[in-house]
Amino acid sequence: MAHRGPDAQGILRLGEVTLAHRRLAVIDIAGGAQPMALDDADIAITFNGEIYNHNDLRHLLAARGHKFHSHSDTETLLRAYLEYGTDCLGHLRGMFAFIIHDNRTGRMFGARDPFGKKPLYYTGPSAGPVSFAVASEPRALFALLPAFPRRVSHNAIRSFLLHDYVVGEQSAFVGIQRLPPGTAFTLAVNNGMASEMRTWRYWEPSPTHLKSAEISEAEAIRGVQDRLSTAVKRRLLADVPVGVLLSGGIDSSIIAALMVRLCGRGSVKSFSMAFEDSRFDESKYAREVGEHLGTVHHEYVFRLEDCVRTMEQILREQDEPFADPSLLPTSMLCGFARQHVTVALGGDGGDELFAGYDTFAAIRPAHLGRALLPRAIDPALAFAVRHLPSNSPRTRFSLEFKARRFLRGWRESGAGMVAAWQGPFDKAALGTLSPTLAMIAGDELSLASDATKVDCDDATAMLGWYQRVYLPDDILFKSDRASMAHSLELRTPFLDLDLAEYVNALPMSMKLRGRERKRLLRRAIEDWEHKGITLPAHVLRRPKRGFGIPVAKWFRGPLRSLARQRILDAWPRELDFISAAEREHLCMTHITGQRDLYKELWALFVLSIWGEQWLTQ
């Protein structure tokens, strides 16, 4: 875990319980060492993350008689537990995963932040020399328990191949679980044995507009502005340099603008990624925003040779399979930013709160198609799509790729649409790829939205999918692993709990109207001009681009041999339940230009590297 905490380490043994910690020093560098114990209370903690409202909470606790011996948010969290017990979670605003050992009661208490910004894995309770173990990454559990069998979870691999990432509580390994976002647990510890584990969900996103009365758009704009400003201000709390990852899109640009307003022109360092491939390059917009705001702007150029040189290393660092290609540039950008700052703010969460993805614009065409075209025509449409161009010399995605993806999900509804559009394989293709995996029952959609609880429209159900599944298991997984691999703390103002609850209680029509996405956020930025917070006008009009790399082109060119080697020749025997003949077929179909199968091949490429690295003992 040294990459997560290069500044210090600590181990605290309390009878049969041992707490360990690697520290990235951000707040109270001199006094915040961990694990931390309170001499007057017989409780101790190991804690990953930041409590952004800890100063306000500290004042409240001090007024109740608590005496503080440091300026650390770790001590604030411990004393909040001492005051409120497990109800302390309702007082916290931040990102966190922690374990508290309470020797007074013989119990342990742990929790993960509401959106799952910080990870927490565990194994147990069980019999053995270590009856319960918890860590930020599975690799630490393997180090602690060297005899632990690294058996691949077929259910997790099924989930990965359907979604690009493993969904929910399962990990990629049998016997290792993830604590879900917004979840807490208690555990009894008796004579060195852990037992009676109880978990509960203390918070979950609910974007169904059930919590507040109707308000005007003007009131909603002011509410978003106030809460987003507070969220950015909270996340500037640090005793080390703080910067911003700036893409030139709406989300990161408004974060940068608010940082400059709070810190002053020339005081904020911004970092962006430039791509040699013009289809993926947005660096000119990031530079323009930086110049407009007066940030000290730094730019890293992402080159093919850099990617090839570092790609396998970055993928091997992931101890769960993860096939979002933007992991590569994100990791490289975080490494670049870490040369200048220890903490960076980013724009993650804006699309998931305000309905910013292209998939929302596809809802109406899908509805229209379902209404006008009978299912009997589907085979003819699929046949026609195969004859569309599968190369994209001027655009990021080929016409064949986009049409095939649309047809794959347009007959679904709500979360089912976006899940079908995004994943590498659908269930039919998974049956051809691996009959073993296709036989496994799974319902990730049950995690996706409030559709099972209340009636909600497709857009709301899709927003539920993005917040409950895609956000924690893709976006935040990527951000945490990419940043912490370089000992950079990445903070996400859009996922401030007060802001998120406020936006989720607003009607969908404020966020999505026709094909206009992020309507409310765009209006908030336009209104801010009266207060001197401005962005270049065309930033508001630019379509969303995303943070991708030209995998389809590379697999037909410079990475062709490497892709074949990984997917065919060096396939791990532990994954032999995936058909060799189908892997060969997919490779040849893509390489010869018949179809654009970059998502399918990238998932298999990633899976091969992961299996070789983590399943072989």
Describe the structure.
This protein has three domains: 8-201, Aminohydrolase, N-terminal nucleophile (Ntn) domain (Glutamine Phosphoribosylpyrophosphate, subunit 1, domain 1, 4-Layer Sandwich); 217-356 and 472-541, Rossmann fold, CATH 3.40.50; 550-617, no CATH class. It contains 26 helices and 16 strands. A hairpin with a 2-residue loop joins strand 1 and strand 2.
Q: What order do the helices and strands come in, and which of them pair?
A:
Layout: E1 8-14, E2 17-23, E3 36-38, E4 43-51, H1 54-63, H2 73-84, E5 94-102, E6 107-112, E7 121-123, E8 133-135, H3 138-144, H4 154-163, E9 177-178, E10 183-190, E11 193-201, H5 217-234, E12 242-245, H6 250-263, E13 269-275, H7 283-293, E14 296-302, H8 304-317, H9 327-338, E15 343-345, H10 350-354, H11 358-361, H12 363-372, H13 378-385, H14 399-409, H15 415-422, H16 427-433, H17 435-438, H18 458-484, E16 489-491, H19 497-504, H20 508-511, H21 519-528, H22 537-541, H23 551-556, H24 560-569, H25 580-591, H26 598-614
Parallel strand pairs: 12-13, 12-15, 13-14, 15-16
Antiparallel strand pairs: 1-2, 3-4, 4-5, 5-6, 6-10, 7-8, 7-9, 10-11
Task: Please describe the structure with a list of short key phrases separated by commas or semicolons.
43% helix; 617 residues; Rossmann fold; 26 helices; 16 strands; 5-stranded parallel beta sheet; globular; alpha/beta; 6-stranded antiparallel beta sheet; Glutamine Phosphoribosylpyrophosphate, subunit 1, domain 1
As for the number of domains, it is 3
Whole-number mean pLDDT: 90
User: What's the β-strand tally?
Assistant: 16
Please give the alpha-carbon distance between the first and last residues: 19 Å
What are the segments in which pLDDT stays under 50 over at least 5 consecutive residues? none
Specify the helix fraction band: 40-55%
How would you sum up the major sheet? 6 strands, antiparallel
